[in-house]
Amino acid sequence: MTDPVQAQLDAYNARDIDAFMRFWAEDCGYYAFPSTLLARGAEEIRARHVERFREPDLHGRLVSRIALGDLVVDHEIVTRNFEEGLGEVEVVAIYEIRDGLIANAWFKMGEKRLEGRAEIVRSGSAPTRRPYIGRRALSVVEASYCPSARGCSVSTMKASRNTSSSNASFSPSMTAMIISATTGSPDCPMTSSRRWSKS
Questions:
Q1: Mean pLDDT of the 63-87 span
Q2: Per-residue confidence (pLDDT) for residue 44, from 0 to 100
Q3: Residues contacting residue 28 through CB under 8 Å, at least 6 positions apart
């Protein structure tokens, strides 16, 4: 009973619209819980997800799943690229399975939560505030340039190739430093007077 639900979630995370649609019945109903019709039939569901699959960070993480009779209930946390920036939303999804396909689906959405931003600085210069979007983004308080990577977790990278933000407009030759989620060594001159928190 859970096979089509897991298969469509895998296709959702791969952003593969053809694979995704294999598990939805032609006359499937797609609802906002409890009864607001969002899409009726495979073509409308497909059109809805073609647009969604353009989001580069789209990902549904399964938290829990139960199955009872012809119903499968998933609790998921979905990472989305909202207009306001990268964030996540909790979703309870109820799937009715018939003949190995999803015949109806209902979705209860939580409040969306936007992630913070991390400070990206140019090596050898004063800090430059740039947007950085990624699944391990940080909320930064009073960040400044770290003159030494010794004793703290700082990764050096080519920002134009290695950051996931489409807004990080560095040239290919510019080296950037991004403070990772594990920064916090007492030997780091930055962390001695600044505070960091995960989003």
A1: 97
A2: 97
A3: 40, 41, 42, 45, 101, 102, 103, 104, 105
Give the torsion sign (CA, 155, 133, 92, 98). Answer: negative
Q: How much of the chain is helix, strand and coil, in % rounded to 5? A: 15, 40, 40
- Please determine, for residue 121, whether its predicted confidence score (pLDDT) is greater than 80: no
Residue 108's contacts (CB-CB under 8 Å, 6 or more residues apart) are: 32, 33, 91, 92, 93
Across the chain, mean pLDDT equals 72
Cα–Cα distance measured from residue 132 to residue 124, given in angstroms and rounded to the nearest whole number? 20
CB 11: neighbour CB atoms within 10 A? 19
- Per-residue pLDDT at 1: 77
How many other C-beta atoms can be found within 10 angstroms of the C-beta atom of residue 25? 19
- The single-letter code of the amino acid at 114 is L
| Beta bridge partner(s), residue 102 | 24, 97
Cis peptide before 34 (omega within 30 of 0): yes
pLDDT higher than threshold 50 for residue 185 = no
Nearest to 105 by CA among 190, 41, 172: 41
Q: Which amino acid is at 189?
A: P
Q: Are 180 and 157 in contact (CB under 8 A)?
A: no
